[in-house]
Amino acid sequence: MVVDTPIARDGVIRGDFVGNDGYSAMREMVRGLVACGHRRIGSIRVFAGVYSSDQRFRGVVDQLSADGLPLVPELHRVIENVPLHQQGRSRIRELMELPERPTAVICTHDAIALNVFDELRKMGRGISEDVWLSGFDDQFFAEALHFSSVRQPLRQIGRRAVEILLEKQPVRRQEFLPCELKIR
């Protein structure tokens, strides 16, 4: 049984898994941004090949398409081989220096969003005034810093994982539980 971050190869999960439905959560986040008038929505994520990050990004891309918005590659940045405390910093600078910068940036986890928030502050930019920011995990600092995030159903994930283990079924199971948007 794997909880939270599945063991995947070529996008296929191996073995039993219980985790969050980051794909649907990110689609919902993009729908909300579009409903608020955002049309230039960017993203910052960790390197390709991390299943949860890939699924979250796919949710962003699929919803942009569903809403009739083009995927503008320059608005979507990938972090490669950077220590956690630096993740997102150079990428937000690149995005904010574009001639047509994004009006919203979605980060695939809150640690990236925290670094982006700090870097925006250093640049003299404000959350909401200059760019709308969101993360994923709804860490304690997201509310204090007033950026939106996605809350995972951690207790339900743990409970469901234990239930599956106790059932001892020979069939492999993969369950993705819905998340909750925290719009700030």
UniProtKB/TrEMBL annotation:
Domain Transcriptional regulator LacI/GalR-like sensor residue range list: 32-184
Checking Gene3D superfamilies in the record gives: 3.40.50.2300
Question: By its UniProt entry, which Pfam families does this protein fall under?
Answer: Peripla_BP_3
Alphabetically, the GO molecular function entries are: DNA-binding transcription factor activity; transcription cis-regulatory region binding
Ranges that cross the membrane: none
Q: What is this protein called?
A: HTH-type transcriptional repressor CytR
Record's keyword terms, sorted? DNA-binding, Transcription, Transcription regulation
* CDD domains referenced in this protein's UniProt entry, alphabetically: PBP1_LacI_sugar_binding-like
> PANTHER family this protein is in?
HTH-TYPE TRANSCRIPTIONAL REGULATOR GALS, LACI-RELATED TRANSCRIPTIONAL REPRESSOR
**InterPro entries assigned to the protein according to its UniProt record, in alphabetical order:** LacI/GalR-like_sensor, Peripla_BP_I
Q: Give the residue range of the signal peptide.
A: none
